[in-house]
Amino acid sequence: MKCFNKIFNLSIGIRSGLMLMPLWLGLNLLYSCKKDWLDEKPRASIVVPVSLADLQAILDNSALMNGTQGGSTPNAGEMSADNYYMTYNDFLTRTEIEQNTYIWQKEIYAGSTSFDWNKSYQQIYNSNIVLEGLQKLSNSDRLTSTYNTVKGSALFYRAYAFFNLAQIYCSPYNPATTNTGYGLPLRLTSDPNEILTRSTLLQTYDRIIDDLTQATELLPEIVPYKTRPGKAAAFAALARVYLSMSNFENALVYSGKALAISNFLLDFNTLTLTAAYPVARFNNEVVFNSVLNGSLIWNTYGRVDNQLFQSYASNDLRQSAYFRTNTDGTKAFKGSYYGSQLLFSGLSNGELYLTSAECKARKGLYVEALADLNKLLVKRWKNGTFVPITASNSNDALIIILNERRKELVFRGLRWTDLRRLNQDPNFQTTLVRILGTQQYSLVPNDPRYVLPIPDDVIAANPSLPQNIR
Questions:
Q1: Do the beta carbons of residue 459 and residue 118 sit within 8 Å?
Q2: Is 128 found in the same domain as 21?
Q3: In a domain, 298, yes or no
Q4: pTM above the 0.85 mark?
């Protein structure tokens, strides 16, 4: 038991914020327990990947790195957002963490750990293992394209995880401030004894951008699997990051670079709209696949916000592709780009067109912005019914584009990030409301509760780590 407890403590991340270890590391640790090794520091020589193939295999753990078996990216933002609601009776069946997150309580975890935090930091840990392993390879290995691909992939995964964490555990980036408030603990090594400290918000975003920028230079344009990042994925991730920062100039540049590699859009007229899950997994519109951490809320208890459902026009095929009718007449979501009840949180060309359109509208290029939007919407409407959208000015175009963004990217884990950034503009602020029985809960724009607390077990293991104030 002593050995198990030590392994468990290491796995949840004393000083590192990690939950689980890779299988090959865990097996070595368990074997070493025979020698009661945990009374001493583990030897680094126990686990040393020896080839590029070994390092690629670590990144190809799609269950962890992409969430193909239950999710990989944080779901607390989607759980906190306004795409859905729960009845009071259904609310009472959910876990305490889900209940607290749903009504934006100041305390969330009730002493429990967080899969959102743990899975993301394990992805970071694996990425660091790979980056350190690359440094130990021969000069001949370093001159190969495979070396560049593995390095670029590790940098991408690390940046992707840092960004996803920042949307939950850090304040929104504000271009009007110095962003010197708390950022993330930036784990850049695999050393479990490294003291956990928090960077500034600016340092967090600088690290994300630096990693992704390096990745764009190393990754190939063509990749064999949607679970591996390519150059388009790195460009698309940069577009998403810069949009979250309200850096519209760079978001436009990188959305354009990604679309220059691949701009395919699904024609919803070709989908079987009555299917349980009409959108196929790994379809050609997907740039990079990742999946939100699972919850029964998505496929059992959550009901689609009625105002959102009614916002789709009668000839807009997304209403049928995305939603099904429950036995009580309410609506549930079925339109995941993962083709299952698990929610797709990855990168797609549809998102890129919307990012490009928004940025062009904000630059005053509203005709070009609506051209981007119309390229997307003509693929979403019933054949022969779509009339291209027009506007008389950039502000009207922007309003239309943001409304379409909400409808297109529903249940992708992006709404929370959009709320956080748009709340900085008085013209687009939203107050969220939950009603449970006779009790009403509200989340006003720019409320401190838009930042979730760091999990209790991480703070307990690192008492000097500053907690978020809600």
A1: no
A2: no
A3: no
A4: yes
